Amino acid sequence: MDYDGTENEGMEMEVYPIEHKGKVYNIITAHDMTFREVRGMLDWLSERNAFLLAPENDFLGPGKMYTCEVEGAQFEVDVQGYEVVVYRRSPA
User: Closest Cα to residue 86, out of 5, 38, 2, 29?
Assistant: First the structure.
């Protein structure tokens, strides 16, 4: 969902590389996100050890799913290494 709560179905996902606290992440999304939301989401995920690399992370496939609330929005994301796929954005 976008800022107005509408679905972004059919919209193409874009890849946005972002440097945050010395690491480079790929944010993959079709949603509009502010820098505060992106950085808040990365901090939230980092606090939950979402970016710890393990041997099972070496294969391509779904990563770990998380639902986080940041800056008044709720995000459903999939984390695979340093790639974060944002599937849904809705008001918190």
Answer: 29
The encoded tokens of residue 69 equal 């609330």
pLDDT tens digits for range 28-54: 999 999 999 999 999 999 999 999 876
DSSP-derived letter for residue 66 is E
Identify the pLDDT of residue 54. 62
What pTM did the predictor assign?
Answer: 0.80
Full residue range of the structural domain in which residue 48 is found:
1-8+19-30+37-52+61-92
Q: Is 13 a member of any domain?
A: no
Taking the C-alpha atoms of residue 84 and residue 87, their distance in angstroms, rounded to an integer, is 9
Residue with tokens 């901090």: 43
- What radius of gyration do the chain's Cα atoms show? 13
Domain count, the chain: 1
**How many whole angstroms from its chain centre is CA 85?**
5
